[in-house]
Write a sequence for this structure.
């Protein structure tokens, strides 16, 4: 793949605690994510995938190693630098119910995004037009949402509104940390479709974190498998899922119920 | 045909809101489960799956109210009992219920064995504490849970372990019917598998006689239950064996649900993910005619007029769509 590098890491490590209580959450991990790639990071609870995500977002500092952004080492020490960085990388989290400020109306959420993209001085009609476009991208109707509070929506709708935010912000990278684990299978299909649209229409790099290897296989180009802070296997989705090499990957695949093959319950 | 463990006839329950509005969350459900069988209930969020689970216990508390219908557990009608009798004689003993976030129900200040003592105290007051401990130890051993859990506190256990402990506690009296409402949806895939294995063990070893399993994860239902029932807007729209339902769904709503299945198998990437547009109807005012008509891509104007009953076809299968089975199959085959 001759694509440009978007985000890459060398020897990235995160250690929590000291001495006896030391926990190595992410252990000397190397990775390269390319522009426009759909990457999945798969692992069970406690494998360090969320810690890695937080480091990518710049929410916590890596203990060791270096993360490069667009080929240059990432500089996010100051507040201003961080703000600039967050214009390029945005996230959707697992729990849509706690992602919103309950005191702010939906309009405020979307207007904030327009402001961040430098559209503060635009006339109000133009802003409404932008918000309507963003909402229709995720199959929501802005006229129905305006003047409502986030808690009046269902989980699936909230998660879709999150994607509408991303559509307005148009960051280079979207980090989705288990965006579908709290909503039902039917809305899940809608969310996945929208993530794919973001990638195909805007060329965003999407980093998708999940414990469901089936989802990862369905949606991504490249899959990284994490076990206890290490990346044990990575490569194109077809290769990793259909011909896994690492024992851990095989186990993860066997843990997911399937419909064409027998589900072996004896290996728990 | 085995002995019928649970029989529900035309059950109707509703919520009464603060503003005295009625919400018909379970609207005429009829079902039957035989001894040794399990039934899966699938459907989107807001279709009334969890309300059905609550209603089946026969234990109603505001805002949920009983309207009409019968719930017969092993020949005994429990829908006519009052709440006190239900608590004393039915819950735990005849029917056990595992709610969605069951693991959060454990009081963090008490040891696990105390919860078991609590259950026994009501239903078998003659048992002494050492006897209860012995019994619990044996049951935990059979179900593959470490015995030391009994002397631990809930906070010391992992999520999956807590969920399995709750299941072991709620089935300690070997109930006839177990209702599991999304018991594994908050867990990761590995813990989920352990929970499923435990439910299977309970069934195989005869500690529970029959099971109702509610989830929106269809591959899971396919692997766990014998039959699958699809629910939409408080009504059942289709019922059949797990295999028939997954590979040959008839009702357009079931067809839509099956379109959202994602499994790590060859061919998954090629198949297109089809989401059903829109949301379930507001049950304060259920639409006339077919409740799914507004979202159905095969619907005609007549669908919104005629209210259909369940029609039987084939072995143990029934569905609610106005169109004939042959017609629907043909439509699906032509895309």
């Amino acid at each position: 793949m001759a694509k440009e590098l978007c985000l890459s890491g060398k020897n990235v490590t995160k250690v929590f605690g000291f001495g006896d209580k030391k926990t190595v959450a992410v252990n000397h991990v190397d990775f390269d994510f390319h522009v426009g790639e759909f990457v999945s990071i798969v692992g069970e609870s406690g494998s360090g995938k969320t810690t890695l995500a937080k480091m990518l977002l710049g929410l916590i500092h890596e203990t060791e190693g270096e993360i490069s952004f667009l080929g240059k080492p990432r500089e996010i020490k100051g507040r201003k630098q961080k703000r600039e960085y967050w214009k390029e990388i945005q996230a959707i989290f697992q729990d849509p119910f706690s992602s919103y400020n309950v005191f702010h109306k939906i309009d405020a959420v979307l207007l904030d995004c327009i402001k961040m993209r430098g559209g503060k001085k635009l006339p109000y009609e133009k802003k409404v037009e932008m918000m309507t476009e963003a909402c229709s991208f995720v199959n929501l109707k802005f006229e129905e949402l305006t003047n409502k509070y986030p808690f009046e929506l269902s989980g699936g709708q909230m998660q879709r509104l999150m994607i509408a935010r991303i559509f307005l912000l148009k960051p280079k990278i979207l980090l989705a940390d288990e965006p579908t684990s709290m909503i039902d299978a039917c809305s899940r299909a809608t969310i996945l479709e929208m993530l794919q649209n973001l990638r195909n229409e805007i060329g965003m790099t999407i980093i998708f974190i999940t414990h469901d290897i089936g989802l990862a296989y369905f949606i991504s180009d490249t899959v990284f498998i994490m076990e206890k802070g290490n990346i044990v296997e990575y490569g194109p989705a077809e290769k990793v899922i259909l011909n896994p090499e690492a024992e851990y990957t095989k186990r993860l695949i066997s843990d997911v119920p399937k419909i064409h093959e027998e589900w072996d319950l004896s290996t728990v | 045909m085995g002995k019928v463990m649970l029989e529900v006839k035309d059950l109707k329950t509703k919520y009464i809101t603060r503003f005295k509005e009625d919400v018909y969350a379970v609207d005429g459900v009829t079902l039957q489960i035989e001894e040794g069988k399990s039934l899966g209930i699938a459907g989107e969020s807001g279709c009334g799956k969890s309300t059905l689970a609550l209603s089946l216990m026969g234990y109603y508390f505001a805002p949920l109210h009983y309207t009409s219908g019968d719930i017969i557990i092993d020949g005994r009608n429990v829908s006519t009992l009052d709440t006190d009798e239900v608590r004393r004689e039915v819950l735990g003993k005849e029917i056990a219920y595992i709610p969605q976030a069951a693991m959060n129900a454990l009081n963090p200040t008490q040891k696990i064995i105390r919860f078991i003592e609590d259950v026994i105290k009501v239903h078998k007051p003659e048992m002494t504490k050492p006897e209860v401990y012995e019994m619990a130890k044996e049951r935990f051993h059979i179900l593959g849970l470490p015995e030391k859990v009994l002397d631990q506190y809930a906070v010391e256990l992992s999520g999956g372990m807590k969920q399995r402990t709750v299941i072991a506690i709620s089935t300690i009296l070997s109930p006839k019917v177990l209702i599991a409402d999304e018991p594994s949806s908050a867990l990761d895939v590995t813990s989920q598998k352990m929970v499923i294995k435990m439910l299977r063990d309970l069934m195989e070893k005869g500690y529970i006689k029959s099971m109702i399993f509610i989830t929106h994860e269809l591959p899971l239902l396919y692997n766990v239950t014998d039959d699958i029932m699809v629910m939409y807007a408080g009504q059942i729209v289709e019922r059949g064996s797990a295999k028939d339902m997954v590979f040959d769904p008839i009702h357009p709503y079931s067809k839509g649900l099956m379109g959202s299945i994602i499994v790590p198998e060859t061919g998954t990437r090629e198949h297109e993910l089809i989401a059903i547009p829109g949301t379930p109807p507001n049950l304060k005012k259920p639409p006339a005619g077919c409740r799914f008509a507004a979202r159905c891509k095969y619907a005609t104007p007549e669908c919104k007029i005629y209210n259909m009953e369940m029609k039987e076809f084939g072995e143990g299968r029934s569905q609610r769509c106005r169109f004939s089975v042959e017609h629907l199959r043909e439509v699906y085959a032509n895309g």
User: Anything to note?
Assistant: The two ends of chain B are 38 Å apart (CA to CA). Chain B has one domain: 4-109+153-333. DSSP finds ten helices and twelve strands in chain B.
